[in-house]
Design a protein that fits this description.
alpha+beta; about 325 residues; single chain; 11 helices; seven-stranded antiparallel β-sheet
Amino acid sequence: MSGDDDSSGWQLTESDPAVFTELLKTLGTPYIVDDLHSLDPDELSALQPLHALIFLFKCLPSATEELSGLAGEYDPDFTGFFAHQTVNNACATLAVINALGNIPSLKADQRLEDLLNFTTGMDPQTCGMAIASADWLREAHNDLSPPSTFSLDGLGLPKKAEDAYHFVVYLPILGCVYELDGLKPHPVRHGTFEDSDNGWLRKAKEVIESRIATYPSSAIDFSLLALRDDPLPTMKRQLELLRKSGSDAEAAEMVVRISNETSRREQWSFENSLRRHNHIGLAHAALLALEKAGLLQPAIENARKVAKERAERRRQNGFSGMDED
């Protein structure tokens, strides 16, 4: 859950594979995160082994906390790892920690191992407080958060209620699909699944689709991410075996796959470098240059025109609440 109050220094996080993968790298785990645009078997088969699904959704004011039917049931006797969210803006990292804490034989940075060991036996609330108090984890979380250096306090501007979004995680634990939501009192058990490669994913798909069905049909306020093994080490081992066996054609195909994956990581690295940089100084210099050249006022007038046209189109499409200036 995002918000301004009680954030204790935790900042908002983007739902982006590059951000989550960098966090997993900082935590010393051999995993990455990928975007999921569907839960079709063909798409999922290319991502195996897949350990968890991270689901981002918009919180609705009318949402109810009652559980029934496909919504699952609370499991107060859950024996795995589960932590409550005790500060705002921490739900992304908390979803990751809740997932990692339930992966058998987890390989991670010593700091994460120490934190997980330290919280063993704690109740979810105390466990969540321990996680929120970990300075190194908060710094890793904030490392790729957008800079926020503008303050509008004291300007007398009307305040609007901002949309709130929340991350939860779905994963298989002891033959059942669980939903770990740091804002709920207990893990939610969504039932057993067939013992097959995609058995738990089929069950998770039912649960997620049922949840999405409670929103208006036009709603697009969702994001689904897959927590999976980093494929690069496996691909490099396969390439070595193919070369040793003289399978030149298959080796050439693997080289292309490795190149594509490496290029994607380089793109992620570039995007993260932009996230770490504060571009406000650049924007300020650009505005000064436009003013000096006599182009700032025409640019402002054009921006207002475009904003009014956009607002009119939104009104025609049934949307409201967008300021024109």
